[in-house]
Amino acid sequence: MPFGACDPKSGKAGHSTISGKGMGIYILNKDKWAMTIIIAISICLLLIFVKKGHVRTAVFTFVLAQLFTWPITLLYVQFGLQSNPVRLFAHATQGNFLFAFLLSPTLFTVYYQHYPKHARKLAKIGYTAAVTGVYILAFLVAALYTNLINLPNKLILLFSYILIQILYIISRIYVDQYLVKMRYPERTEK
Hints:
By secondary structure, the protein is mostly helical. The chain is 62% helix and 3% strand. Strands 1-2 form a two-stranded antiparallel ribbon. Helix 2 runs antiparallel to helix 3 (97-113), helix 2 (55-78) packs antiparallel against helix 5 and helix 3 (97-113) runs antiparallel to helix 4. It is globular.
């Protein structure tokens, strides 16, 4: 049984190791490689695309995105729209921690940092569609080629794509309003 996977009969998490004399070496199967790649990509995206003077804003946007993605993932699991056979923290949650708590907030942070505020409306719509499309594509690849995500109905991807776009737009507007309020409190006082 892969490390982090749950045994369907007992519900207990398993660990695949090669045990030698007093040492254990973890086997990295394709699921572990996928988890490692998701973590590495998320870290690289944050290091490359977060502007040096905007780290505080990046932290705020990251946490704001987690506020939405984590409960939505838990609802998906609760209603049987997705299952996560192999996951980080198998004892703690049945949700996919990497996608809900790391990759999606990372993509929202990059989305916010580089949103074309002064571009035409078509460019803004295209940018939002592209960034959310990257997330859905990563989600689909994980569902098709790994055991990280199991989707009983692939139409949930379309619903997720639309939902994430709406959340990104609403969250971006909220962050803009919040930052204006924090930078210029005299503008918001009545």
